[in-house]
Amino acid sequence: METLKILHEENERVWERYVLAGERIAAFRKEGSLGGALKDYFVTLAGFITQLTNVVVRVFDGSLYEMEQKELQELNHALYADLLPENYDHCYGNPAYAVGQLGEEYGQVLSVVYSEIHSLTACAFEGRLCGLTCGMELLIELYNCFEVEGGYTGREIKEALYYYLHDYQEEFRRVSVQQKYDPAWGFAREIIMGAKLTDLRYLYFYGEYISENELKLAEYINSLPEETVSRMAFTYTDGYIRGFQTMGVDFSAKSIVNIRFAIGFERMIRKAVSTFEGMGKKVTIHRAAMNLAVRNYGYKDGFFATSVNPQYEYDHKNDMALCYDRKMQKTAVAAAKVVFDDYRVQCAAYAGPAALEVFGQEDFFPVNKKEAVQKDARATECMLEGSRELGLLMTDYIKSEETSYTIIAFPLPSIGEEFEEIFLETIRLNTLDNGLYQRMQQVLIDVLDTGERVLVRGGNGNRTNMVVCLHQLTDPASQTNFENCTADVNIPVGEVFTSPVLTGTNGVLHVGRVFLNGLEYRELEFTFVDGMVTDYKCANFEDPAENRRYIFDNILYGHETLPIGEFAIGTNRIAYEMGRKYGIQPKLPILIAEKTGPHFALGDTCYKRSEDHAVFNPDGKEIIARDNEISLLRRTDPAKAYMNCHTDITLPYDGLAEISVLQPDGRKVVLLKDGEFVLAGAKGLNVRE
Fold first, then answer.
1. β-bridge partners, 490
2. Which of 262, 316, 564, 599 fits a disulfide with 358 by CB distance 3.0 to 4.6 angstroms?
3. How big is the CA angle at 617 (ends 602 and 531), to the nearest 5 degrees?
4. pLDDT digits (tens, 9 = 90+) for 351-397
5. Are 176 and 294 within 8 A, CB to CB?
6. What pLDDT, in 10s, does the model give residues 525-581?
7. CB hemisphere CA count around 655 (13 angstroms)
8. Could you state, in order of their start, the residue ranges of all structural domains in the chain?
9. Closest Cα to residue 464, out of 199, 608, 672, 221?
10. Which residues pair with residue 410 across a beta bridge?
C-alpha cells in the first residue's frame, strides 16, 4: 500500500529492535524458566505476536491482498478467537480469569497488558513497526521480571506498564493526530477507493474483527440500486456542507474533511470521498483508537467494526486509571502539544468530521467485575483534569467556531430479520422534507419565545416533571431562544433546541428503558436543582450502590454532577413510529431517538467552545441561548467551563403528558398534549407516515 511509503523511515529506524524483539518472544515457548499459568500467559501472547509478525510479512510483500477469502476469514478469526464470548471465560483478557489464574498481585495488571498487546493488531495491518515494537518490548520486560529469581512484586510489574504508557505518550498521540488530520495517511482511503467492493475480501484488509454484520451489510449495500446509494451519499455530504451554512462558517476556507464510518458502508463512503475531493478537499479517515493511552470507551470516532465482545471492552474501560496520575497527566498534555505543533498547518485546514454511525447491535447486559480496574477518586480527578487540559489545548490548533460536522445513522443486520425493511425506512427517514419541518418547527419556536419557562410532564407511568428556565430576549424581533434544526449537522430532521438557564431549571427526568452509548438503562431517573444533577438512580442491578456507580461511570463520566446543557423538543413522529413498528424504539441511536420526543442533554451545551460565534435561524433571528452559567466560566475559570461530554436522554411521545410554555403573565400555552402537537400550524408534525 502507498501508505507504507510514509512509514519507511520510521520502520527503518526500529527494524533491528523489531527483529530482536520478535526473536526473543518466539523463544518464550522453548524456555523453562516460568511454569504454570505464568508460562501459559506468556506463551499465549507469544503465539499472538507471531501471528502479527506473519501479518507484517504479508503486508510488506503484498501477499495479504492476494489471499483467498476463506484464508482471510481464518486469519481474522484466529486473531480474535480468544476474545469471542464463547472463549472469553478462559481468556487472560478477562480480568476475572486472569486474577483467578495468575493471582491478585499480578492478574489485574497482566490482563490490562493482554488487552494492550491485542491492540497491536492495528499496527500489524498498517505496517507500523514502531508501535508494534514498543508493545513487544513491554512484553519482554515483563517476562524478564518474572524470570528473576524470587520474582518481582505486583507494584514493579505495574511500574513497567506505567513507564511504557508514560515514555511513549508522544508516539501514541502522534499516530492519533496524524491519522485524523493529515491526508498523507491514506490507509483506509486506499482500501475504500482501490478495492473491488463486490469482492468482500477487502473487509479483512483493515485488521478489525469482521463479523456477519460487516459481511451482510456490505453484501446488502452492494445489492442496492445506484440511485439509492447515491441518495444516501448525497444526504450525508449535503448535510455536512449545509452545516457550515447554518453555522455561518466559510467552508471554502477549509481543505481537510474527516470521514468516520462503520466497515461495510464502503460503497457509500467511496461516493462521499469522491464528492469532497471533487470540491477540492482532501479526506482523512482514521481508525477508532485501540491503544490504551488514547482510546475512549463507548465512543468510536474513526472507522470501526462490530465489537468482538462488548463485555471485553466493558471490562477494560477503566484500564488507564491503573496508571494515571499527575505525572502522566502532565506528560500526556506536553506530548499532545508537541504533536499538535508538528501538525499545526493540517489542523488549521481541518473542517470537521462527517460521521456515519450504526445501530441495532445485539443486546448487551454488562457484568461488573471486581477484578477489573476501578477508577478511584484520585484517578478520576486526574483524568477529568487531563481531559479538560487536552480540550483547551486543542482549541489553540482547531477553532470550533471555524468548523462544523454532520452525523447520520443506519441499522446493522443484527437488528433483526426485518433489517432490509428497517434500512430502507431509515433512508426515507434521513431524506424527509427539510423545508416542511422547518416551517412547522418555526410555529413552535414562535410560541416558545413568548415564554419564560417550559413545563415537561410525563404520563402513562412516566414520572418526569421538569421546569425549564429560558433566557430573556431583549429584542424579540431579532432574537430567539431555540435553534430550528433541520437535517444538516444532525440527520434526520426534527428538533428545536436551546441551552436553558440553569438557575430555576428544576425537577425529575425519568425514562423507563433507554440505550445510551451502547449500554442499557432501566428506570433511569435524574433529579435536578438549578439545572445541576443532584441525585440519580436506575434499576439495572439489585444493589442501589451498583446502579449509582453504573450511572456515575457511564453517564456522568466521573463528574460528581453535570449541568443540563440542552433542552429540546423532538418533532419527528415518523422516526418514533418506525421505532414502534419494528419494536426497536429503545435501540434507536441518540441521533434518531432525540427526534422522537423532548430530551435533555447532560454535559456541555451544543455550542461548546463556539459560544461567541453568532448563529442565526433561517428566519434571520440570532439564537442567543448559546451559553449557561457553567460555560460562561470560560471567561473567568476555563478549566471549569467544559465537561467534555454531552449525553441526550429522550422522553418518548408515549411517555409524555404535556409540554407547555409558561408566559410572564402567568398564562400557559400547551404545545403537546398526550404526545400530540396541538398548536395550529404544527399539527402536521403528528403525521405518522
1. 407
2. 262
3. 20
4. 999 999 999 999 899 999 999 999 998 999 999 999 999 999 999 99
5. yes
6. 999 999 999 999 999 999 999 999 999 999 999 999 999 999 999 999 999 999 999
7. 23
8. 2-167, 178-409, 433-535+562-678
9. 672
10. 358
